[in-house]
Amino acid sequence: MVSFFKRDWVFLLTILPWIMGAQSFTRHDSLRGSITPERQWWDLQHYTLDVALSIEQKSIFGSNTIRYRVNAEQPQGRNSALIFQDGLRMQIDLQAPMNIDSIKQDGQLLSFSKDGAAHFVKLIKPHKVNQEDSLICYFSGTPIEAKNPPWDGGFTWETDELGRAFIANANQGIGASVWWPNKDHPSDEPDRGIDLKITLPKPLVAVGNGRLVGITDLSQDLHRYHWRVISPINNYGVNINVGHYNKFSEQYPGLGGNLDCSYWVLDYNLEQAKAQFAQVSMMLEAFEYWFGPYPFYEDGYQLVEVPYLGMEHQSSVTYGNGYRNGYRGTDLSGSGWGMTFDFIIIHESGHEWFANNITNKDVADMWIHEGFTAYSENLFLNYFHGTEASSAYVLGTKKRIMNDRPIVGPYGVNKEGSSDMYYKGANILHTLRQLIENDQQWRQILIGLNSEFRHKTVTTDQIEHYISKATGIDLTEFWEQYLRRANIPVFDYLIDQNTLKYRYLDVVDGFDMPLKVNINDETLWLYPNKTWQSLTAAQPLKTFAIDPNFLVTTRIETQD
Description:
By secondary structure, the protein is of the alpha+beta class. 23% of the residues lie in helices and 30% in strands.
């Protein structure tokens, strides 16, 4: 998500309502969605999240050790060479009804004030540029319970078919601060990952992100699972899964060597999981071809059964699609091809490249996550079934596009763009593939994105510039039209015997995207813009059609 964040805070709060027009945002939206001075001066290095679950009370408690480094660029114009100690504050986020009980640094209690979910901690000791330090937040409470996960956020306290505890969290959108204290902004990920420790009653199993370090018996009734991620990880990707799990494993011989793949499923679903999860190796084969190596060989790949549909938690993808193909047994495209694969395995795993490897700096740019990943569905089909199948699938998803608002949202207020970011995003990329007319070049662009921005947070501008440079095409107006306007281009035309007159309507100035068309059974390119152009053929124009692989609509002019 995007980095417009080195701006005066007071000025931002003053002009934000004017910038957003009819949309109404609060100070709390800005505290959640912007790089405040209290966030800007420090860079996350590592989390150690130690949490215990009280299942009967649906509550949690624990601590989070936040390790950070002081940035060279200091807030309020401070000289980076100076030690600064006068009133230095750190913003840590935790949403009600969860509570921060206390915060300590070097064993000393720190005072803090609260403004909604934002907690402003007053640091005592002096800090110096590039210095590393840490503090510990102790927290407790009853986290928001998700009513419709994963679309709303929070904890899910369910039971399995045998009446046993079955628990998970999903918090994209609402934020990881719905259950644990952290720097809840996507622009900053802990450079050295996270240690996640989960205490729970025996014999329940706790599955987190990354690799299992060990299990410690704490008493006759309690044990602690210790999981570790060494790669940078987005906050919403940190997850806890609890159930009566059985595990099975395999190694995938991938581009980065042997990838450890682990599958955690409820004990009574083991056999059908072994059959359905065979699609994981197919997913890895296709996506490593299109996107390059799986981004987290160090942390492995896990697929974990949960009591909701699924989510792209980093190196711990969650699954609840009922061990059947399609999206809950249906084809989102209506083409038939959507029933040839398990939507959750393919889509949510695609996020390992786009969301977890390449992560938006601002929620406004979430189309980077969802557009590319929705597009990955048809690339999976392309790899195994060819271009006709993949085109049929992605074109079938056009019916889900609403063109209600731009797919890039407003910045600095934790607000994503239109839900069109999924399949409008996919069809934008599909259109771009047609313009390039070179699948090997297109593939290298997708691989290059995952290499250039490996384990980084990015802006839409960065993605735009990378693709424009890689193609050698000035795509400025293309991106402006498709990402920042609600409407798609209108191809306006008139046929008069041998002559075709055509232009674009409802487009930004300078928009001149070529179109492939079929005239009298002959394929050719047109180069429309906002002004009328004409093409005259030797014969009357009996048939005319625009290639459906382009994301445009049409309007036929009537003759006076």
